[in-house]
Structure formats: C-alpha cells, structure tokens
Amino acid sequence: MRLDGNDYLNLTGHPDIVRAQTDALRCDGEFVIQSSVFLLDSHPARSLEKSLARWIGKEDGLICQSGYSANLGLLQAIADPQTPVYLDTLAHTSLWEGARRAGAASHPFRHNDPQHLERLVARHGPGVVVVDSVYSTTGAVCPLESMVEVAERAGCMILVDESHSLGTHGPAGAGLCVALGLSHRVHFITASLAKAFAGRAGFMTLPAEIRNYVLSTSYPNMFSSCLLPHEIAGLAATLIVIQRSDAARANLRASTGHLRAALSNLGYPIHQGSEQIIALEAGTEPATMVLRDRLEERGVFGSVFCAPATSRNRTMVRLTLHAGLAAAELGHVEAVAAEIAPLVKPWEWPIARRSRGGGTIDDSQA
C-alpha cells in the first residue's frame, strides 16, 4: 500500500483530465515556449488563472511552475529589507526561502500560536504574516481566524499557503479560507497544484492592480518558461473535476477520521494533527528507519521525513491518505500498526513522552 503520495482525491488517470491533455497534445495550433511575462490575455493560462481566483474568492492570480516557485516568487516580490516577515515555525521551506530572497528579517513564531505572533509584531512592527492552512508534516490545521485577527490589528498583510487544503476542504474544494469566510480578509493565497490537483504547477492569488508588478519582479516567474498547453488544459479540466468531487472529499474525511482514531487507540501519538496527513513521529533517525522497515516489510509504504525537512529530533514516517482507499486497505494499515506496535513502541517516542509530561514540543525547523 502506497501512502506516500499527495493525490488526495485520487484523480491520477481520471478520463476527463487525460482527454483534455491528449486533445491539447494533438492540437496543431502554434505555440511559443516563453516566459509568462510575455503571455497575452488571450492565452489559455490567463483563463485558468481567473477561474482559479474566482473559485477561491479572489480577484486574479498567477500560474507558476510549482508551489515552491509561487511562494518564493511572491515573497521575493512583496517583501524587502524594511519589511519583517513573520513565519510559523512549521511553515513550508519555500516560504522561508522567499523571505530570505527578499532580504527581509524573518521572525519565527511558535507553531499555531497567535499570541506569540502578536508579541513579535508588537516588538518588530507591521510586515507579512505567513502560515500554512494545513501543515505538510503533521496535518495540523492553522487557527486561521485568530491569525487573521492578529494581522489586522497589527496592520500586517497575511499570506496563507493552501497547498494541503485546496481541493480537499471547503465548499466545492475551494479551501479553508473560503470555508471560514476569510478570503476577502487574506491578502494572498498560494498553493501547489501537485497535491489534490495531481499536476505540476503552483498558483498565487493577486489583486489585479499589482499582478503586473509581481509578474515582472518575481524571479521564478520571469526566468522560467510558462506551462505547456497540455498542462494548462489538464489543470483546467482538473478544476472542474475537483469542484464536482464532494463524494471524494467525504470519503477522504471518513478515511482520515477512521484511521486516526484507530492509530490513536493503538498508542500512536498523532495528536499534533487532524487531517489527511498523519505523522508517525519516531523522533530520532535510527528509530524512524526501524519504523519504516517494519511498515515496509508488511507492505505499507509512507514517506520518511528527516533533516532538512524536519529538525533532527523530530524525524518521522508520514502517511498521506487519499479518497480511493477501500475499507479493506484501511483495515490492513490498522492491522500492521497493531502488529508492529510492540516492536516500535510508539508510546516511548519523544513526542509521546512530552505529551504525557505536559512539556513544550520543540517545533523548530532545521
């Protein structure tokens, strides 16, 4: 069983998406490979950008080569050495790199702690607040309403990376900002389109009045070629499929709730998250390798996360669920977890001991 991918809605190979891609590949139309800086409003990419933006309640946007490029390029364009950037300690690496490329002072605040954020902003002044809606290593949900309120009180802009909630959460999959009624209060939303979209691209929302500015100052955008026609066609078809995938979202939620409850009952300390990303945080690299081997020997494959993706004392095997999982498959994972529990002793992992002792979890990133 492969629980190491990001195709949350199980869309790979969907006939409508494949048909759109193959039709575009067969098209005889002339196409010039160039930077998106040079694309006209008549280009199919612009139609896709506007459709994505409307879906999540924003005015306009920009398609990028990846979610990494979207985050790096946006922060590089909107921050500078005079603009402090406040990042959750578990924010994606691309966001930290974007702040670094902008020359901005980066101020990390404790994971999901709006009070700590508010104290930092009071000390260093207004800037850009940066969070993920769902965190990629733990499956924890950001307290978005509280973060937005802090940003508004302090006069900060706020950027929300919805890579792991776009498509899976909210009405028609429009994400957590839409679900919480926050789209009009969040300045920028970014996302990888390699998760629920099962493609290869990224997206950022932008107010119309600054789109051309970001388009012509974001280095990843300026110095990379635009997406190919079949990629754009596939993403446009995927958007329609995702909007109609309420049943898949319900299946994913049900599978997530079932497996999380089962693992928790077996003694696995997975309390740090709640969504389709499940972190089996063994702690040390040797312990994580043992966990990986015991799982793989029994046919369950997750993703090993270690430095620099995590801090050295918080390595893990990450399981990612998808909407296509059958009850028998979930039962197999549960049976394997029960069988290996006496071997890997999850109740002795550092995160379990900290939880029992009420200690503060070190959520710093390498």
Topology summary:
Elements (H helix, E strand, L loop, with lengths): L14 H12 L17 H12 L4 E5 L2 H12 L6 E4 L4 H10 L3 E4 L4 H11 L3 E5 L11 H11 L2 E5 L14 H4 L8 E5 L9 E5 L1 H10 L1 H4 L6 H15 L2 H20 L11 E7 L1 H13 L5 E3 L9 E6 L6 H18 L5 H8 L9
Parallel strand pairs: 2-3, 2-4, 4-5, 5-6
Antiparallel strand pairs: 1-7, 6-7, 8-10, 9-10
Helix pairs in contact: 1-10, 2-10, 3-4, 5-6, 11-13, 12-13
Short description:
44% of the residues lie in helices and 13% in strands. It is of the alpha/beta class. The protein starts with 14 loop residues before the first helix and ends in a 9-residue tail after the last helix.
Task: Please provide a written account of the structure.
- This protein is an alpha/beta fold and 366 residues long.
- The protein has two domains: 15-243, 3-Layer(aba) Sandwich (Aspartate Aminotransferase, domain 2); 246-357, Aspartate Aminotransferase, domain 1 (Alpha-Beta Complex), CATH 3.90.1150.
- The chain is 44% helix and 13% strand.
- The strands form two sheets. It has a seven-stranded mixed sheet, sandwiched between helices.
- Helix 7 (176-179) links the parallel strand 5 (157-161) and strand 6.
- Helix 3 (67-78) runs parallel beside helix 4 and helix 12 crosses helix 13.
- The chain is globular, with a radius of gyration of 21 Å.
